[in-house]
Amino acid sequence: MGELSEKCAVVTGAANGIGQAVAEALSAQGARVLLADIDEDRGQTVARGLPNAAFQRADMASREDCRALITRAEREWGRVDILVNNAGLQHVSPVEEFPEDRWEYLLRVMLIGPFLLTRYALPLMYALRWGRIINISSLHGLVASPYKSAYISAKHGLMGLTKTVALEA
Asked: What is the 3-state secondary structure of the chain?
């Protein structure tokens, strides 16, 4: 039994990379983990390899998918103790050529999705009088670089959201 054996976590972008590593670490500490990703095959495979883990295909750009993710955790475990907003993607293009739909999608995944998940999970955490929200950003949450306007805008916004929720919660 790890120190998180009574806790339940939701991790986005958990089918590979940082999200997978976070899900594995939480699981190793005994947490029940709901992994979320748009890569269903890979996500299912990762979840099957972890004790007390489940997978749900979810697109963080979708309000309905975000709500369904928190609803499932609450339905199955009665709680959400830890939320890790990790899902992310990149598109490199000058601003004047950046596809508008792609720009919006990146912001939905990396800023609006974390806002929605936080909004839906906070009441459960308040009821428990305990919770942790971990928003994965990057150096681009602090400084800019050329041709990554959507990614940088989302990460700067995520840093602002993180600071605001820290003050409110």
From this structure: CCCCCCCEEEEECCCCHHHHHHHHHHHHCCCEEEEEECCHHHHHHHHHCCCCEEEEECCCCCHHHHHHHHHHHHHHHCCCCEEEECCCCCCCCCHHHCCHHHHHHHHHHHHHHHHHHHHHHHHHHHHHCCCEEEECCCHHHCCCCCCCHHHHHHHHHHHHHHHHHHHHC
Q: Could you give the residue numbers annotated as active site?
A: 151
Q: Residue 111 burial by CB count (10 A; 0-12/13-18/19+): exposed, middle or buried?
A: buried
pTM: 0.96
Sequential pLDDT tens for the chain (169 residues): 689 999 999 999 999 999 999 999 999 999 999 999 999 999 999 999 999 999 999 999 999 999 999 999 999 999 999 999 999 999 999 999 999 999 999 999 999 999 999 999 999 999 999 999 999 999 888 999 999 999 999 999 999 999 999 999 9
